[in-house]
């Protein structure tokens, strides 16, 4: 029995994917859950595993090919079955003397490593992408490599003429397209309101400095994000309507019983939001390590589907670039997102005296259909209290 394996839906709203790399070839024996292929979509690059054991009979999609979800990309037969047996034509006795003619074999296009957006740019500029020298990781061709190829005069004059003076057209593809769609959907589907609070983080800054050596011994860098995650989780336990979503069809608020915290990461391809699962069950240093690993995977386009699914609340921070304050956009279908902004030394009044303290702003954007202003204010106030007195956040380190 031949099993036709179709490209699965590897993410919400993803309709197609690029076959980036095959791990198997015709004739290979594969086992269940063995990696078959690496697929790059507009959201993530993910390894897809075999749902069954058997023999690879045919590989129907080439590396670099864009394939629609639901298309058959590989066929698998019974274990030990010879691939050639499936390709033999059925013949009648009178036909046995007929020598089959070999089918024409098309020349194989050299395989190149490039994102769908880069390939699209190359096509639009009439660039043969196989002639472009890649400067990215593992020889990956970037959009800048394509433009450099054009600037070097290695394409036709007609193609170069389309790059009009005074402007540049960049296709909205990949992660950036998904981000644009997500932001537009969020603005359309939610009634967003933002509340801003000023936080004296002097004690938090000191606590981080104290704990940095312990984190380094575990091989990780301690940022402020793990502290913020723990503060958020505590706040969500006390105000569960912020750890929720709205089922628009049934008009029901879905209160989430897990605390899966998305942490926005800025990458070369755009903003992605990997998710720290069950953050309430993890200590501060474990959170630090997981956040660092997810951010590293995001910047190398190695996030799997499970890394980006299931979030219940999100945090966004640009660190030192975070600005004074902002109004972050909710990661729909979640109902709230917390923005963390730059820490500056500022004069503040404390115990009747003007003193210099480390101060930052936090901004909570929330869906006003689900969360009222008073609840949002109490939640933000709880986060403020925990960050100003972080002793409760560091009681459990590992």
Topology:
Blueprint: E1 3-6, E2 16-22, E3 29-30, E4 35-40, E5 45-49, E6 54-59, E7 66-68, E8 72-77, H1 83-87, H2 116-124, H3 143-151, H4 157-161, H5 174-189, E9 192-200, H6 202-217, H7 225-238, E10 244-247, E11 252-255, E12 261-263, E13 265-267, E14 270-272, E15 275-276, H8 284-299, H9 305-308, E16 313-317, E17 336-340, E18 344-350, E19 353-367, H10 373-388
Helix pairs in contact: 7-8, 7-10
Report on the structure:
The chain contains ten helices and 19 strands. Residues 85-108 have low confidence and may be disordered. The protein is globular and about 80 Å long. The chain has 398 residues and is α+β, with helices and mostly antiparallel strands. It has helices at 83-87, 116-124, 143-151, 157-161, 174-189, 202-217, 225-238, 284-299, 305-308, 373-388; strands spanning 3-6, 16-22, 29-30, 35-40, 45-49, 54-59, 66-68, 72-77, 192-200, 244-247, 252-255, 261-263, 265-267, 270-272, 275-276, 313-317, 336-340, 344-350, 353-367.
The H-level CATH homologous superfamily of the largest domain, spelled out, is: Chloramphenicol acetyltransferase-like domain
CATH architecture name of the largest domain:
2-Layer Sandwich
Mean pLDDT: 84
What is the first-to-last residue Cα distance?
50 Å
- Reported by name, the CATH topology of the largest domain is Chloramphenicol Acetyltransferase
User: How many strand elements?
Assistant: 19
**Strand coverage percent:** 15-25%
**Count the helices. How many?**
10
* Spans of at least 5 consecutive residues with low confidence: 85-108
Give me the Rg, rounded: 26 Å
CATH class of the largest domain: Alpha Beta
Helix content: 25-40%
What does the overall shape look like? globular
Alpha-beta classification: alpha+beta
Domains counted in the coordinates: how many?
3
> What string, H for helix and E for strand, traces the elements in order?
EEEEEEEEHHHHHEHHEEEEEEHHEEEEH
How would a textbook summarize the main sheet? 7 strands, mixed
């Amino acid at each position: 029995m031949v099993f036709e394996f179709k490209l699965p839906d590897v993410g919400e709203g993803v309709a197609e994917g690029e076959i980036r790399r095959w791990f198997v070839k015709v004739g290979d024996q594969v086992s269940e859950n063995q990696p078959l292929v690496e697929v790059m979509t507009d959201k993530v690059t993910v390894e897809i595993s075999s749902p069954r054991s058997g023999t690879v009979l045919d590989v129907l999609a080439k590396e670099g090919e864009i394939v629609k979800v639901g298309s058959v990309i590989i066929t698998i037969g019974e274990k030990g079955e010879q691939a050639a047996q499936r390709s033999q034509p059925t013949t009648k006795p009178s036909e046995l003397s007929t020598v089959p003619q070999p089918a024409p074999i098309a020349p194989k296009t050299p395989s190149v490593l490039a994102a769908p957006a880069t390939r699209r740019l190359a096509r639009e500029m009439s660039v043969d992408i196989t002639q472009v020298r890649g400067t990215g990781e593992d020889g990956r061709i970037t959009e800048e490599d394509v433009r450099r190829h054009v600037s070097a005069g290695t394409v036709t004059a007609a193609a170069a003429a389309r790059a009009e003076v005074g402007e540049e057209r960049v296709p909205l593809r990949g992660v950036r397209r998904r981000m644009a769609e997500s932001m537009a959907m969020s603005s359309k589907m939610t009634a967003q309101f933002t509340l801003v609070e000023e936080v004296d983080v002097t004690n938090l800054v000191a606590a981080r400095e104290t704990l940095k050596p312990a984190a380094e011994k575990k091989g990780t860098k301690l940022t402020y994000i793990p502290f913020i995650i723990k503060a958020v989780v505590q706040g969500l336990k006390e105000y569960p309507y912020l750890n929720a979503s709205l089922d628009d069809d049934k008009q029901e608020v879905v209160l989430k019983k897990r605390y899966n915290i998305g942490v926005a990461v800025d990458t070369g391809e755009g903003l992605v939001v990997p998710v720290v699962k069950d953050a309430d069950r993890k200590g501060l240093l474990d959170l630090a390590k997981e956040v660092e690993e997810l951010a590293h995977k995001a910047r190398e386009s190695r996030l799997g589907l499970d890394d980006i699914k299931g979030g219940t609340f999100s945090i966004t921070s640009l660190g030192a670039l975070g600005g004074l304050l902002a109004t972050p956009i909710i990661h729909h279908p979640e109902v709230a997102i917390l923005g963390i902004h730059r820490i500056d030394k500022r004069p503040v009044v404390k115990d009747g005296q003007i003193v210099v303290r480390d101060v930052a702003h936090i901004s909570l954007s929330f869906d006003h259909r689900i969360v009222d202003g008073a609840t949002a204010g109490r939640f933000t106030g709880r986060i403020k209290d925990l960050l100003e007195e972080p002793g409760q956040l560091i009681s459990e380190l590992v």
